[in-house]
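Question: I have long wanted to understand how a fold can be written as tokens. Here is the record:
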Amino acid sequence: MNWPACPLLPQERILRETGRFLAHLDTYPVTDRHAQVIPKQRRASIIELAMEELAALWPQVATGRSSPARNHGHGAFNIGLNSGPESGRRTSQPDPCGNHRGLGHGFKLVMLAVLLGLSGCGKKAVPPLIPPVPVTTAQAVIKTMPLVVEAMGSVESYNSLSIVPRISGQILKYHFREGDEVERDSLLVTIDLAPYAEALHQAEAMLASDEADLEFRQSEAVRYSELDTNAVTRSDFERTHAEASAQEHKVKADRAVVEQARLNLGYCSINSPISGRAGAYLLNQGAVVEANKTTLLVINQIEPIYVTFSVPEKHLTAIQAAQLKETLTVEARIPGIETKLRLGRLAFIDNNVDRASGMIRLKGTFANTDAFLWPGQYVRVSLIVGNEPGVVVIPARAVRTGPKGPLVFVVKDNGTAEARTVRVARLAGEEAVLVQGVSAGETVVTDGQNKLKNGAAVVIAEPSVPAATNAVPGAG
């Protein structure tokens, strides 16, 4: 009898895919329903047993003939034959295409054994496989780290001046634009000089008149002195000399008035007393100002610039001792732009401690050639008072807050992450100095912690690198 051409059996397709699935289990980490990674040894034993059952089923698919039951001591693996009174009725029979009725039942039992073995419990279904979590990592290192005193501070201009006119009058012109960088002695504002020019002319005319009168009175006094004592009375002689002396003092007063008029005329042109950045116009052009009262603008010198901060008085002794050895370095960072560090030098320690707060005020000087620091800004300040050798350092971003305090995820040799509680001594820039919890050389997760839990499988997205060195360069 000629058998008809037979399509690929459904059981054959399933067995092939199952073999690939079992090979996949041997390659990648697999977790059970408790999200715990199944050890490789246990996986290998389960896969080996399942493969043997699949090998026994394969001839039945290819030939359509049943094979003797294979018994491994577990009823779940009795395939092809059934015991009991109805075994004869349930024994599978081949059809023209070799299909085996009992094969589907045997295959189900093999897959059930695999799933039960992987789950570790026959009462609940195995959850889907959890893929490894991609993470980035860094290695904990031992190195020398700076000892720092952290504080919040504010930026202050090195010099700040309010420009107030010395004379009253109308503003004729501003010679700069708001926000311009102005140089010392550069012209800023011109006040109407016409009234002061006229006042100078008047003072000069009065001086000329009094100088002529002085010349006449002096000549009169000389003539009276040359006459015979019997020709003039003593009273006339003394009067001429007194008038000449009085006129001489009047001329001096006139000269002072002329000088004052010249000064007032000069005050009509207001020049910058310092180099710095000009602020906004506080009065518009054409407004009338009052001498020594009206503020026209404010100029701030921002190169160099000060950063003022306060630290607890308990640090004062250490700061003073360190300052005797060398000039102390001050680091300033703007919150939110922590990577843009600026370095300065400690320039001032106040002469008293605030009794109310127990804080002492300090100032650092920064070159600020790029105008990065701006008056009025709040900054994070780190005063470096020394160095501490041989400490364990990891990136600060590796430290997260857990229920028991700071924690980090450490990547173990088997490719899983372990959550560890750590003690952080202090933060130094982008690095954290640890007291305990992590040893040098261990790999910690720096990114991807939000998807991790203790024992989760991980895959490193990029090679581990040591924690960056927080070297202290020379202050700028």
Summary: The chain has three domains: 10-129, 149-154+300-466, 161-297.
